[in-house]
Amino acid sequence: MGLKFRFFRILGLAFSMLYLISCTSSAPTGNLFVVTSNNLVTPFVVRLDNGAVTANNVTTPTGLAPVAALLTPDGSNLFVVNQGDNTISAYAVNSNGTVSAAGSATPTNSAFPLSSPCAAIGDGTTSVPTGLALDNAGHLFVANLGAVGSPGDPSTVHAGSVSVFTISGGTSLAEVSGSPFCTLLPSEIAAGQVTNSPSAVVVTPNGKFLYAASLIDKTVISYSIDSSGAISEILQRENVGTNPSGLSIVEAPNSNRPQGEFLYVANAGSNNLSAFAICDAVTVSCPNPNQPDGSLTEVTDSPFAAGLGPLAMVASPDGQFLFVVNSQSNQISQFKVSLGTGSLVPNTQATISTGGNPVAIALRVGSTLISDTNGTEDFLFVTNRGGATIFSYSFDSTLGNLTEITPTATLGQPSAVVAK
After folding, report:
1. Which CATH class is domain 243-420?
2. Which of 401, 376, 387, 411 is nearest to 50 (CA)?
3. What is the pTM of this model?
4. For 79-119, how does the pLDDT look when each residue is reduced to its tens digit (9 = 90+)?
């Protein structure tokens, strides 16, 4: 009897191990793509049942000093902007989670059109690309910081701008007519202002309007987008805090669509968030509800306090929560979003620690249903430049409070992260 019992016990353990292996291998997965300062894109695999992150050890080169990354909505293509050589690198995302470079990088520093007043500033080229955005018609937008240059040497002065490219074939970029678009008005140039600094750009979900954060003059500039991707300033500049460095649009669920979207600005120098209601559809947030014109109306009680040096933000898919990376206090601020007003209230867990000098954030919906709340277990990923790590967090989609998962090392100092 003893031998027979041991035989069946061993057989049961074997079946248990096979079951665990089967469950592990069949767990649904997603992908992270981390851009690092040693000029690499590194893909990671994410288990969507528990948030575990594993590098697949297949890196791909970028241009020099990559600073921002963006995935197309279908996850088939990746774009990286490189500050060191003023280029955009384009990649195809393969079915195994790796990326393939699409030939030579595209320059972001083309000359201003002769008709542009900015053509007379410095050498007439853009400088220092910093951020990316994409509309739903296949146009890629690049924020280019201006540069004051050397005192007394006008040739070293650059105007800030937004470059616009049409995407074809997934990875081929062609600059649209009129690009780059100067972020200075002719009246400002006539008054002697020779630079401002777009540090980030974002596009409304309907693809009609673009907003640029201007670092030096502490404003958000509003633009309309035409069918070609060309942008036109709609002569509205809203004052924000010091060193606006990140932008995020929170889209309300369809049931709350009359309240429209809200624009949030991370002000790294004043440690707060500015908030605006966007008039991009027939909504109650419009000055004239029947004429959506992209105008912004500041939310009551804006700006809202954050941690030290807020840089990047991401909202939950349902628009209920906003997560903000604070680069100097090494933490994430967690907010509840009022879908009726856009006001921000600290969540019941207001902050959670990150690694050293967090700089970027991404979110991925998980696959596990939480029966107590009918929510899902979703995941947040923060890249830490100081610690060369990815910090992973899980949260109940109905509650929004983060729980840390085991960190993962990166192959260099990370500057950007996107999730598929």
Report:
1. mainly beta
2. 376
3. 0.90
4. 999 999 999 999 999 999 999 998 888 999 888 888 887 88
